[in-house]
Write a structure and sequence with these properties.
Radius of gyration: 14 Å
Strand content: 5-15%
CATH architecture: 3-Layer(aba) Sandwich
Oligomer: single chain
Structural class: mainly alpha
Order of helices and strands: HHHHEEH
CATH topology: Glutaredoxin
Largest sheet: 2 strands, antiparallel
Length: about 100
């Protein structure tokens, strides 16, 4: 993450293909809305049943099986977490 490197913010990158998120982790990041984790701008997502599924249980299972459908980056700071890049939020975590 260039943003973190430029500001010398320590971070750890995780390969989601090797370290797949579990259902509990997904629910923690989702904060009650599992669909917020899905990258609906991804062409492959639009062609996959996940784009049309309403069941949160099925969406979670599809994300576990297809981590490439997750919005990235997934950033955690203690108890706080963020899906996607939001500079304001990152800067607020630094203060």
């Amino acid at each position: 993450m260039r943003f973190c490197k430029e500001r010398r913010i320590p971070y750890q990158e995780v390969n989601l293909q090797k370290h797949r998120l579990g259902k509990r982790e997904l629910n923690t990041f989702a904060k009650g809305d599992i669909r917020s984790l899905v990258d609906f701008d991804n062409r492959k997502v639009k062609e996959h049943p996940i784009a049309y599924t309403q069941s949160e249980e099925k969406i979670a299972q599809m994300l576990i099986e297809n981590p490439q459908f997750l919005r990235t980056p997934i950033i955690r700071n203690g108890q706080k977490s963020m899906i996607g890049f939001d500079e304001e939020t990152l800067l607020s975590w630094m203060s």
